[in-house]
């Protein structure tokens, strides 16, 4: 879409980052990661018991997923940056905000998980 906005094709061999700096369009993958990180912090800090929190923290009884299911869960990417104590870190807004940058700036070639 951004290439068509400025009339550039793949044959012109211009990098996506360069095109993004011209069009000033925000990287959608980074925006999705930022929103996911913020929602997780918001959900964790909420003291009420909600179904979103229960489903996010749910673990299957046998610990494995069925064949054909995705290998990663919603929280796997959060645990990768926030480590095992991610829920404790989420309660500290300043710490959580600092970790947000590390989560958002991960290599964009890695799947969202």
- How would you state the average pLDDT, rounded? 79
Q: How much of the residues is beta strand, in percent?
A: under 5%
Largest sheet: none
Number of strands: 0
As residue ranges, the low-confidence spans are 109-113
* Structure classification: mainly alpha
Work out the radius of gyration: 18 Å
Please provide a written account of the structure.
The chain has 113 residues and is mainly alpha-helical. The protein has a domain at 27-104. It has seven helices and no strands. It has helices at residues 2-6, 16-23, 28-45, 51-57, 74-82, 86-91, 93-104. Helix 3 (28-45) runs antiparallel to helix 7 and helix 5 (74-82) packs across helix 7 (93-104). The chain is elongated, with a radius of gyration of 18 Å. The model is unreliable at 109-113 (pLDDT under 50).
Write the layout of secondary structure elements.
Elements: H1 2-6, H2 16-23, H3 28-45, H4 51-57, H5 74-82, H6 86-91, H7 93-104
Helix pairs in contact: 3-7, 5-7
Which key phrases capture this entry?
0% strand; mainly alpha; 7 helices; 58% helix; elongated
Please sum up the structure shown.
By secondary structure, the protein is mainly α. The protein has helices at residues 2-6, 16-23, 28-45, 51-57, 74-82, 86-91, 93-104.
């Amino acid at each position: 879409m951004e290439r068509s906005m400025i009339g550039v094709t793949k044959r012109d061999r211009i990098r996506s980052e360069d095109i993004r700096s011209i069009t000033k369009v925000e990287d959608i993958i980074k925006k999705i990661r930022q929103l996911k990180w913020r929602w997780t912090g918001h959900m964790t800090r909420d003291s009420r018991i909600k179904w979103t929190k229960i489903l996010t923290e749910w673990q299957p009884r046998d610990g494995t997923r069925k064949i054909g299911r995705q290998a990663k869960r919603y929280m796997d990417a959060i645990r990768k940056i926030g480590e095992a104590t991610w829920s404790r870190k989420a309660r500290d807004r300043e710490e959580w905000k600092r970790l947000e940058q590390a989560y958002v700036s991960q290599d964009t070639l890695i799947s969202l998980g």
